[in-house]
Amino acid sequence: MSALALGDGRIHSAFKRARASDANASEIAQELMDTNVVQLIKSRKLFTSWVDDERVSDKLLFTTPFLRFWFAFVAPIFKGIKEGNYAEFNTRYENKIVEFREAVFKELSYALIAKSFEEDKIVEIAGYWDRDVEMDIYAKTASGKNILGTCKYSNAKVKKSEIVKLQELSAKAKIKADIFVLVAKSGFSTEVRALKGEDLKLFSLKNFKNLL
Question: What residues does 180 pair with on adjacent strands?
Fold first, then answer.
């Protein structure tokens, strides 16, 4: 479970790291979905030109940040915690907390973006991945517009190179992006702010107050 909590959520790679057999992995995944611990997110590979029998691993994502925290930091070393030994927890927390925060930041970004498109509402939002491309944000509006974006949980301002990278990924995935979205913990460079408009939406930490 810790492999799911701190990885990218891809079923195949997560259970491979956990050394679970395909049969056990399928059984475990189904039980977790049945108990609403995780939810299944499928790849948006309809944008690719692959033949139907080519597979892209689906993802299992925890339904709440608390469940991700529990299985990332508590469950794997519960015995030691129960006995009052917190050294291993502290080490694990210090080494993995940034990765954990990035995952939560991304989920909050989805909620913020969904709430920010009021006139042309978001009808679906998640990440995008296929065998060659991965992007933090893929969303579609009620009118059919495609939104692609990036979440940056770092102490550096986002530069124009991130926009260029998104454009390149969009072309590689064969997605016509109508709107690009950047969500940044530390804001944006002057050059990026100057490009803000109908086809480029920018969100920083101050915008998250809209979720309260």
Answer: 148, 200
Question: 178 Cβ partners below 8 Å, 6+ apart?
Answer: 145, 146, 147, 199
At residue 130, the pLDDT reads 84
Contact 187, 157 (CB under 8 A): yes
Tell me the DSSP string of 43-70.
--GGGS---TT-----EEEESSHHHHHI
Beta bridge partners of 10: 59
pLDDT digits (tens, 9 = 90+) for 106-164: 999 999 999 999 899 999 999 998 888 899 999 999 999 999 999 999 999 999 999 99
Q: Distance between CA 2 and CA 5 in Å, rounded?
A: 5
pTM (two decimals) = 0.83
Average pLDDT, rounded, for the chain? 87
State phi, psi for 117 to the nearest 5 degrees: -100, 85
Domains of the chain with CATH codes: 2-106 (no CATH), 119-211 (3.40.1350.10)
C-beta of residue 123 within 8 angstroms of C-beta of residue 140: yes
pLDDT digits (tens, 9 = 90+) for 24-39: 767 877 888 899 988 8
Candidates 98, 96, 188, 172; CA nearest to 128 is 172
CA separation for the pair 177, 187 (Å, rounded): 22
